[in-house]
Amino acid sequence: MATVINKQVLLRDYVTGFANESDLVITSTNVDLRVPKGSMTVLVKNLFLSCDPYMRNRMRKPDPLSPATAQSFTPGMPISGLGVSKVIDSGHPDYREGDLLWGAVGWEEYSVITPIPNLHFKIHHTNFPLSYYTGLLGMPGMTAYVGFYEICSPKKGETVFVSAASGAVGQLVGQFAKMMGCYVVGSAGSKEKVDLLRNKFGFDDAFNYKEEHNLVATLKRQVKILLHPQNKIKVIAFSMSIKPIKRFSLFSRCFPQGIDIYFENVGGKMLDAVILNMRPHGRIAACGMISQYNLQNPEGVYGLSLITYKRIRIEGFNCFDYFHKYSEFLEFVVPYVREGKITYVEDVAEGLESAPAALVGLFHGKNVGKQLVVVSRDLE
Amino acid sequence: MATVINKQVLLRDYVTGFANESDLVITSTNVDLRVPKGSMTVLVKNLFLSCDPYMRNRMRKPDPLSPATAQSFTPGMPISGLGVSKVIDSGHPDYREGDLLWGAVGWEEYSVITPIPNLHFKIHHTNFPLSYYTGLLGMPGMTAYVGFYEICSPKKGETVFVSAASGAVGQLVGQFAKMMGCYVVGSAGSKEKVDLLRNKFGFDDAFNYKEEHNLVATLKRQVKILLHPQNKIKVIAFSMSIKPIKRFSLFSRCFPQGIDIYFENVGGKMLDAVILNMRPHGRIAACGMISQYNLQNPEGVYGLSLITYKRIRIEGFNCFDYFHKYSEFLEFVVPYVREGKITYVEDVAEGLESAPAALVGLFHGKNVGKQLVVVSRDLE
Hints:
Two copies of one chain form a homodimer. The first copy, chain A, has 380 residues and is α/β, with parallel strands linked by helices. The first copy, chain A, has helices at residues 55-58, 139-151, 170-179, 191-199, 215-220, 269-277, 306-310, 326-338, 355-362, and strands at 3-11, 24-32, 42-50, 80-90, 100-106, 110-113, 120-122, 159-162, 183-188, 205-208, 225-227, 233-235, 259-264, 278-286, 313-316, 346-350, 370-374.
């Protein structure tokens, strides 16, 4: 009984170009549910796995020219990521059977881990969905918190643009920015997501980037409807993709005065369009550039010489550098979640078998909200 | 006698592509050497004019999409820049005949200016060449000072790369970095400039970027010469462009361990190569991107998604935001100059007629050191 079957998700081989489901293989092995006493290891049962864009970079062949980037997965071995787990057996004095934790685990039903501070966290607040520790209360939450408050240096009244805005991180950045009194616009890749931004997350404006032909103009867009002397409607300025609008409304949208803060999740063409629309002393928090991760030849960014004139700061960051602030983050965010002032949308894939499609789907924008995989709902 | 001829340099028309001498026209007008009392204006005789890369951007047609960038010159009017001047007549209570100042003036023999704090400065230290106020003791000096000490956050022992390193700003950044105990490498566009970097400015290493086919490898370059058991020389690693080297020497050059700080003066391909070679938590001070200013289609930068993994900060800055610190800068730099611990190389063009060629020459790297134009050496 101590040995059970352990389903796993392996990387078939290093990936070039767009990742496919077939790059990941479901397999089974056996696992002993006991770990040696005093081994400092812990055997966990995985409940939820987090699908995150950075994982694409770990599928890449290691690049000797860029040793500082993400550590590659090993072909033929289970991939790893962040997840929520329950301790089954422990050889570590700080963990005991039944403890819940989140942190680095394999993509498998059971993992043997060696808990590492700031990489594995015990879960104390259990009056929220446990899956939130893959998102709102986990790494994406910390990323939004650190990226917005530390990297963007926001001030009340500033204008904020968020790309991939309905995603695991973006939906929180938008809500944080509204709480701070900023004007916030988000971009996403479907009508459903744009509606979420406007109606659920409280963004002031949102657009579907796939429907925009000129992102520079879209970001600058301002539409004013004035009553003409003959009571005809006159559109003063508009971008190509504005839909017919109600009579007698006054619209003023996106960033006619420019962008103070850009929370960058996508890279490529969008980054270029944003730089053109940035205001002087603007800040760009480079959280990630998902549009580039699957390209064999990444897109160029052409407008960088503007950052000198505009005094723009572009800063890459990784929330793992800030996990000493994790408890500070929980103290900040938990009351808002409890009071319903922060909301969170998840996209839940059921079962480890669905994990490859869920992960690959991220890169096509198939997820609506935080993508995660349920490995087991069985807390026993 | 109060009216004299005033030679001027006009912009013929907005420039696209590479600027040519013929885009600038020498002309003459008359100027009254007296200004009305109480007018708050000052008539100055220009002694030295500063040729600066940003001036190319002022030759461009104004771009309504980027109103925050440099203000364009007006075709048919004298261009303007920074210069060193002597007051001939003053309608301003703070200025009197004979005062020396540096700041914004027209490209002409005489200018009527309205002095503006932090844009016009009286010259108090006159025991240096007055031309230094176009460079070492003027805007380029402040740019190097602010860019290196404020934007780059340097620490002793860090590795620093400077492009356009023999130019008005770069030669100072290299010397500041050495004073701080950093390891410093510079790039420039000729053997003469590379020799200056090594032998005059004290750079630890330098290369001619025009002779390098693979800038990524060049920046990473490490050459080790070991004595083989049979006393044969064995080259462990080298980049393509290494010249034959002396026997029995041990070479270790450029950045085998990566770059902590990049002082960015050129942009384009060099920026891309640097990003690939940056160390985690590296900083890039974007002082300017001269390689891009004359291109109708700027080069793309393709490696930006690495800045997230490497936690790189890229920050554009303009020394004019820091001119409240100008006296602090002088207090810092003047003793070093006096003691010969900081040196400065100028490239001097004689006469206003030579000004168009001098300015345009910047964009072809013809200048060796700070490019300036002598309008008059007559201090009377």
